[in-house]
Task: inverse folding
């Protein structure tokens, strides 16, 4: 079964990741992992940090000649910006002059700064900010890109894209396949389907930046060809939709998660929300619609998984809100740190990769998966069995 852990501070020497449970024998395309990392660095509305970083993945365990060994994969991404922070963020040596530490004492509302400091007893809130920074998501994207390659070997595809930026809702185009969505969103720097509003959104982001403010948005992920029956209705903690929602909520700045029609289903009649069942040869069981986003009883039902995430605006404001100094307790403006105006585009890649991780996790939990060929055989046999149920 897959598990992972990440470590590393935003301006520390590097990000590290360990992932266990990836089957042996999986040929990894390293260029695809690096492409995902480059995509996460892009998007309109990013700050200047991304001009410094050129995220690439290094393997220091679990891989031989590009093929997984079944042992833990050890991953590294360098923080190039660390060279400008080498004294401030030195893991071992202390600095002589504490004025050079770039201490944070005026917490930013909406960031982890204040509560993190209170909980861990830090008097320099940089100790909180450095880890709560969304820089960490680079490693989750690398791990998700590995999981996505595993899923591709099982004929499962997924994509994450942007549906809304600030209050601008992008027109949806119904019944697109994952491949068609990928093709469309690669043609603009907002990862949106319909380009009518690209200029208006660019203008909105630029104006927001000028105002010293930030923007959030809505992300949608679709996963196709997921076998039915992942997760279980038998106990609350075995329901896969709940796990998936939890993992997506675990991404920085995500404040809402919706599966299928989600909140809007609450105001419709049952007859408008349930997906009628059909059986067709040779594919077998299906549904005539997908209001429930690929889940019934906490289990995948074979329809595409549709999950949406609401991202709040970034809490670092160039025109800061009221805060108070943790030492003097004097009420004054929050501290300003370099940041992005919006990170909705990178976040759409992060949500996609986190969904990939959770899918790979539940699959390797459900099926014997020491070796990729055996896993492929197991899943093919299982799909066949379901078709004839
Ligand atoms: C972030 C603040 C900014 C972002 C960072 C997330 O970092 P810096 O202060 O170094 O400019 O660039 O995101 C990344 C570094 C990244 O790779 O996504 C924050 O406070 O969360």
Result:
């Amino acid at each position: 079964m897959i598990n992972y852990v990440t470590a590393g501070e935003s301006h520390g020497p590097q990000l590290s990741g360990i992932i266990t449970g990836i089957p042996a024998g999986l040929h990894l395309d390293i260029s695809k992992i690096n492409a995902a990392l480059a995509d996460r660095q892009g998007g309109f509305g990013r700050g200047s940090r991304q001009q410094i970083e050129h995220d690439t993945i290094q393997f220091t365990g679990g891989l031989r000649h590009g093929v997984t060994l079944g042992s833990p994969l050890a991953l590294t991404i360098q923080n190039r910006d660390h060279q400008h922070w080498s004294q401030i963020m030195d893991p071992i040596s202390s600095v002589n002059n504490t004025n050079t530490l770039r201490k944070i004492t005026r917490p930013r509302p909406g960031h982890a700064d204040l509560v993190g400091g209170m909980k861990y007893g830090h008097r320099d809130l940089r100790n909180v900010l450095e880890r709560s920074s969304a820089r960490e998501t680079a490693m989750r994207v690398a791990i998700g890109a590995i999981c996505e390659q595993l899923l591709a070997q099982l004929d499962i595809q997924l994509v994450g894209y942007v549906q809304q930026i600030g209050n601008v809702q992008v027109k949806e185009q119904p019944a697109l396949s994952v491949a068609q969505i990928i093709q469309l969103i690669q043609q603009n720097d907002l990862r949106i389907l319909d380009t009518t509003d690209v200029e208006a959104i660019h203008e909105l982001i630029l104006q927001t930046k000028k105002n010293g403010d930030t923007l959030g948005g809505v992300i949608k992920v679709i996963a196709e060809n997921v076998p039915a029956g992942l997760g279980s209705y038998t106990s609350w903690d075995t329901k896969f939709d709940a796990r998936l929602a939890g993992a997506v909520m675990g991404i920085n700045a995500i404040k809402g998660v919706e599966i299928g029609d989600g909140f809007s289903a609450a105001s419709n009649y049952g007859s408008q929300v349930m997906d009628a069942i059909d059986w067709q040869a040779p594919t077998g069981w299906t549904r005539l619609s997908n209001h429930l986003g690929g889940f019934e009883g906490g289990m995948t039902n074979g329809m595409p998984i549709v999950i949406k995430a609401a991202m709040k605006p970034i809490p670092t404001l160039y025109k800061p809100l009221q805060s108070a100094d943790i030492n003097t307790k004097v009420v004054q403006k929050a501290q300003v740190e370099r940041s992005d105006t919006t990170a909705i585009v990178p976040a759409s890649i992060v949500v996609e990769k986190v969904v990939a991780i959770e899918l790979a996790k539940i699959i390797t939990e459900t099926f014997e998966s020491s070796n990729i060929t055996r896993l492929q055989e197991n899943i093919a046999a299982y799909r066949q069995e379901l078709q004839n149920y």
Q: What stands out?
A: The chain has eleven helices and 17 strands.
